[in-house]
Every structure is written in structure tokens, then in C-alpha cells.
Amino acid sequence: MNLIKFEQSGFIFETNEGFRLALDIGSKTPLSKLAAVRCDAMLVSHIHSDHFSPEHIKALLPKKLYLNQECQDALTETVPSCEILTIKEGDTINVGGITVLVFSVDHGPNANPLKENLGFLLTTDNQTIYFAGDMFYPSGIDVSSLEVDKALLPVGTYYTFGPEEAVDFAKQFKRIGNTVPMHYEKDPQTREQFVALAQQAGLRTETAPL
Predict the structure, then answer these.
(1) Burial of residue 59 (number of CB atoms within 10 Å: 0-12, 13-18, 19+)
(2) pTM here?
(3) How far apart (Å, rounded) are the C-alpha atoms in residues 174 and 12?
(4) Residue 111 pLDDT
């Protein structure tokens, strides 16, 4: 699997077969950046605009769009040629050969309360990727016996983990191949702080250019 990083918590996962799954590409990504980007399906973790943006969904034109009910209720615009499917905590779905386990994540004392906030565990091409979503308090599935190739963790402190909390959480996993910091655009220094702390803790990090 190839992992392509976008702003905030946005990613595209591309399988060895060429299937492309977009995740949480929202308002922090310039629409112009998506002009030549395609995806086959898209996952959205929660309703906040930096993760859920109808404009960005229409720019990506996924054939299938996986949303929680709160996002569906807010999606008043039609996405051409797109099938919209509901996801919720506890679901396990197959998206183009990618198995996705859906779990609930605690976003903390948020200024914009929301009904549902999700994280995902994705498995394909003999790789397992953990996406923490906007996690403020350790939550979701038990990671103490979990072995993953990549753990995508928020580090920006803005209603999510900060660098220290993200490293402490990463240390709870049985094994992580690489940690991937995300959700740091408000203060990019938090990414560098996370990388330094992760190295001190013996964790490997994988970062995209700022």
C-alpha cells in the first residue's frame, strides 16, 4: 500500500491493485491541489470542516462515500455518480479490498460538540494502518495487543493529542512500524516536537514535507 499525505488528517491510501481510498481530505487542503487527484472511494471520520467538506468531496468525485449519520444529515448537496453509505462504531466494511474496522474516538471538550467521531483500522496488502482521527483522550479499540505497520496520530493539541500525549499513546501499542503525525497545521512546530519525542522513546516516524 502507498500512503499519500494531505493537509490536516487527509490521506489517500493506494493499494497494490491501484484502488485509491481518500480519508478526511477537508477544508485545510486547497481545492486547486485536488485538480489532478482521483479516488475510488472516500471515508470521513466526523463532521468538522477540516475533515468533512462537500466541496472537497465533489472535487474528488468518489464512486462510494462512507459517512456517519451526522455527516449524511448535513450533506445537502448532491455528489455526482456517488453512492453514499452509512458507517457507525463497530462496523467492519470492505472498501475495494481494504478491510476497515470502525471505532469511536473521544474528541475531548470540543468547542463544536458532535454526535459521532470515528477512527479506523485499515488492513490490505498485508499491512495494517491505525487512523486515530481527532483523538483527545485515549479511546476506541484496545491497542495493547495491536500490531500495526503505521499509526496515524494527531499531534497538534487543538482538541486532539499534543506531541507528548501522542507519544504516550503510541507506547501503548504492542508494536508500531512507523508513527505518522497529522493534524498539526495550526502549529507545525508540534510535528517537530512529536518527532523528537518519538525518537527519544525509540519510535520510528514517517513524515511528509511541510
Answers:
(1) middle
(2) 0.96
(3) 26
(4) 64
